[in-house]
Prior knowledge:
Layout: H1 3-18, H2 21-28, H3 32-46, E1 51-53, E2 58-60, H4 62-89, E3 94-100, H5 102-109, H6 113-119, E4 123-129, E5 143-147, E6 156-159, E7 163-169, H7 171-176, E8 191-194, E9 205-209, E10 212-216, E11 222-224, H8 227-235, E12 240-244, H9 245-253, E13 258-260, E14 266-268, E15 271-275, H10 283-295
Parallel strand pairs: 3-4, 3-5, 8-11, 8-12
Antiparallel strand pairs: 1-2, 5-15, 6-15, 7-12, 7-13, 7-14, 9-10
Amino acid sequence: xxxxxxxxxxxxxxxxxxxxxxxxxxxxxxxxxxxxxxxxxxxxxxxxxxxxxxxxxxxxxxxxxxxxxxxxxxxxxxxxxxxxxxxxxxxxxxxxxxxxxxxxxxxxxxxxxxxxxxxxxxxxxxxxxxxxxxxxxxxxxxxxxxxxxxxxxxxxxxxxxxxxxxxxxxxxxxxxxxxxxxxxxxxxxxxxxxxxxxxxxxxxxxxxxxxxxxxxxxxxxxxxxxxxxxxxxxxxxxxxxxxxxxxxxxxxxxxxxxxxxxxxxxxxxxxxxxxxxxxxxxxxxxxxxxxxxxxx
Length: 296
């Protein structure tokens, strides 16, 4: 559609709704003659008369009435586009509700919040941590950060950077027991494993061996149902455990944990931010997503 015809439809919609060229011109910030000329060009192109004009009134013809509702819909769509653009430019503000599991909340989200809050002081954070899958719409959640493969849904998503899963032990434990050089060497070592709260199943330890990925479930004397407890037990010298590198980064940096079997660590790219379509144009949501992707 030519630009000239589009402006004619908008002028027609506004003039028909307000009942005069002058009122339409005022609402569109143009001159009455510009409205008149646009509508005349539109009538010429369509080959019909849209208005019956008198010195005192402007009345839609039968053909004009048939087309006017469609033209109004076009005008509403144009105005909605303008409002979306304004919201997109708006400064992030209000309460941002974020849902995540406890490990992701502690190790990925909480560390980036101080800088985010400094950049966007009008945004308040409501961080909700649980291992249960939340319904974003029912619980009014703006963003959820999830680990694992995403089920097909209407939610929008963005993948966060990949991470590694590997084995760790404390220097005290390694002073007593020489570290294994191969995953098979875990036999005979003390290990700490995780039991999933939602399924009751034990975590299967993945290893990259050559071109293959293998899994094993070590015979562990200590089994816990929270990953934070796994890490705490490893750091206390209870044995060897497996964790994501982002969860133990500060402990490794402080030399409280030591990576072992590093050549067999596996990479995962299954952490995603998800949000509902209704939050697409929310400035706080977009700002937080961009911030997360820059700093995790």
